[in-house]
Each structure stands twice: as C-alpha cells, then as structure tokens.
Design a protein that fits this description.
single chain, 3 helices, about 65% helix, about 0% strand, elongated
Length: about 130
C-alpha cells in the first residue's frame, strides 16, 4: 500500500521517457492523417456539379467511403494506441502516454463523424 505523497513506481512523472514521446508523435501523425483525409474528401466532393451526375467522387458509394474514411483512420489509430497501452503496461513501462493518445484519437474520431460526414455525403444518406 502506498503512503501519502509517495509515487507509484510505474508513473515515472517528471522523467524523460521515450514511450511518452512516441505516443505523442503517433497521436499527432494519426490525427494529421485522419483530419487531412477529411479535408481532402471535402475538397474533392465540393467539385461535384450536382446530385444527378455520377463522376469519380459524386456517386453514393464514393461519397460514403470518403465521408467515413477519416473517422476510420482515427478509429484505427486510437485502437492501436490502446493495444500499445496494454503492451507497454504489461512490460511495466510508462503506459499513460499511449492511453491518452488513444482517448485523444477516439475523441477526434467522434468530432470528425459529427462535423464531416453530413457535408461530405450530402443527400446520399438523407432518407
């Protein structure tokens, strides 16, 4: 049992740690990939002349894939961060950086779903 003011041996707060740096680097790169995909998809879909034309990005399947691509990238990144959290924890390393990266990517995925899917899919998902 820990005494008051005593740190847990696994937190390593205030120390340089390669796992925390790797988790931050991974979260930034995965977030850039997911958000970049959403931005490029929105720009690509904005070139659609109307809903009746089925060009490369204007058909229903293409718009749906473009809308969900970014959130899927962020979901995969968050899932990988949680897997990495478990592996680092099991090896008794500094796991909390990976845990934070996973929650950051999952939160960004929900934001990308909320803000990006409707404008990109347009009338495709409207019932």
């Amino acid at each position: 049992m820990h005494k008051a003011g005593e740190r847990s041996p696994g937190d390593r707060l205030g120390q340089e740690d390669g796992e925390v740096h790797a988790a931050i680097r991974f979260a930034v790169l995965a977030a850039a990939a997911g958000v970049g995909f959403v931005v490029l998809a929105a720009l690509w879909v904005s070139t659609c002349p109307g809903t009746g034309v089925d060009t490369v990005a204007c058909g229903a399947p293409q718009r749906t894939m473009l809308a969900f691509g970014g959130p899927l990238i962020l979901f995969a990144g968050g899932l990988w961060a949680f897997v990495r959290t478990y592996r680092v924890w099991k090896a008794q390393g500094t796991w909390w950086g990976w845990h934070g990266a996973g929650w950051f990517l999952f939160t960004l995925m929900v934001v990308a779903l909320g803000l990006g899917v409707s404008p990109i899919t347009g009338p495709v998902l409207a019932l």
